[in-house]
Specification:
Blueprint lengths: L12 H14 L6 H7 L15 H13 L6 H14 L7 E3 L1 H11 L5 E2 L2 E6 L2 E7 L4 H5 L6 E5 L2 E2 L5 H8 L6 E8 L2 E8 L1 E2 L5 E6 L2 E6 L6 H16 L3 E5 L8 H8 L7 E6 L6 E4 L12 E5 L6 H11 L4 E4 L7 E7 L5 E10 L15 E2 L4 H5 L4 H14 L1
Parallel strand pairs: 11-12, 12-15, 15-16, 16-19
Antiparallel strand pairs: 1-18, 2-9, 3-4, 5-6, 5-7, 7-8, 10-11, 13-14, 13-18, 17-18
Length: 401
């Protein structure tokens, strides 16, 4: 049967229904419900809620236990219940990670991605698409292109899964094979590649005359120090008088890393306001005495995959008029997640607050609109054209006159 590939919005309805069913499977696991709430909920860091009526889930489990023609694996049911409980919240940013998934997630957040195929991907036009292939890595060598929809991995459909799940399946031991099936122009194409160790630093710099082009691919624990070292080592010696900060395809990371980066432009001022129904409002301030780029004309490049911590940086620089934003409207992720460590190495990632720019603006669902809108198509990427970077360089020339 041929699948029709067209733009769509990802629906959470089916996922929520499946999550509720999964939760029902694991609710009792051979003991009564009171024992379950006492023993199971603490694994999620949640205190038992005596005013919640779980009897209908109890009823589902009791019928499964009586009539299901097969064995029920209690360990799997408990894991499924934990995942189902968080999935049923209906927030794509709140999820439960088993110990293995959590370990891979933390490694990727800190750039320790091990072996893979070398792609950047994100949700675009309703599907997880390839944004770019990293130079001299398996995906580029195999012929995978920007804009390809990720459809299958090792012949298993993954197009409805999120980027974290897909990334985990693409990773593996160096030298092992992985088969990736993509959809390009409505046609399925398959590529079998050997995984290679990926060297993917979170920040690096290139120079164009006296303009420094700083690319930040993610915000990990080393990002701030990497960029500070770049500025301290080279900028005075090279006479740098302009900066282009490239945050395109940067899906975020640690808020603390965004703070460290912003402290190069903003001296001790508020950069982020968090508001939560469960906690008091919290304001994050830039560090003092580190704003070496405060008076350097700066352009920030963004696109639809610029998200989260990247939007914190772009939003603060825009509010303080420290930078001109060029590119496309950003993703619009104006919420903050907290990572809660659970027993056995599992992690619960929970949306705990909404964040606002220093001027009190929420970008959630709307993103940050650029001062100068310039599109970069998948064709541009595949042909190594960069009209956004070209526009930034041209803008710098005009400002110098």
């Amino acid at each position: 049967m041929t699948k029709t590939w067209e733009e769509r919005q990802v629906s959470l309805g089916g996922a929520i229904i499946a999550a509720v069913i999964t939760l029902a499977l694991g609710v009792i696991v051979g003991v009564n419900w009171n024992n379950f709430t006492t023993n199971f909920l603490p694994y999620l860091g949640v205190q038992s809620q005596n005013n919640v009526d779980w009897s209908e889930l109890n009823e589902v489990y009791q019928n499964l236990a009586l009539y299901y023609d097969g064995d029920l694996d209690t360990t799997e049911l408990i894991e499924g219940a934990k995942k189902g409980l968080t999935d049923a919240v209906g927030d794509i940013y709140t999820n439960y990670m088993t110990a293995n998934v959590a370990s891979d997630y933390m490694d990727s957040l800190n750039g320790n991605i091990g072996a893979g195929i070398g792609v950047e991907m994100a949700l675009r036009d309703g599907y997880i698409r390839i944004l770019r292939t990293l130079p001299d890595n398996p995906a580029e060598k195999a012929g995978i292109k920007a804009g390809d929809i990720i459809y299958k991995i090792d012949d298993q459909e993954v197009y409805a899964e999120d980027t974290d799940a897909i990334a985990n399946k693409l990773r593996g031991d160096a030298g092992t094979e992985v088969k990736l099936t993509v959809v390009r122009d409505g046609k399925e194409l398959s590529f079998t590649m050997k995984r290679e160790t990926i060297n993917n630093v979170s920040a690096y710099v290139e120079y164009s005359g006296k303009t420094a082009i700083i690319t930040v691919t993610r915000f990990d624990s080393n990002t701030g120090s990497l960029v500070r070292d770049i500025v301290a080592k080279d900028f005075t010696e090279k006479g740098i008088n302009k900066v282009i900060l490239d945050l395109r395809n940067n899906g975020g990371g640690y808020v603390s890393a965004a703070k460290e980066l912003l402290s190069l432009w903003i001296d001790g001022e508020p950069i982020l306001i968090q508001k939560s129904k469960n906690h008091a409002d919290e304001t994050t301030y830039a560090n003092r005495g580190q704003a070496k780029l405060a008076d350097i004309p700066t352009i920030v490049l963004v696109n639809g995959a610029t998200a989260s911590a990247s939007e914190i940086v772009a939003g603060a620089l825009k509010d303080y008029k420290k930078a001109t934003i060029i590119g496309e409207t950003t993703f619009g992720k104006g919420v903050v997640q907290t990572l809660l460590n659970l027993s056995g190495g599992a992690i619960l990632k929970v949306t705990t607050a909404r964040w606002y720019t220093p001027n009190g603006n929420s970008i959630n669902g709307d993103g940050i609109k650029p001062d100068l809108e310039v599109e970069r198509t998948y064709e541009d990427i595949n042909l190594s054209r960069d009209p956004q970077l070209d526009a930034a360089k041209e803008y710098n020339k005009k400002e110098s006159k």
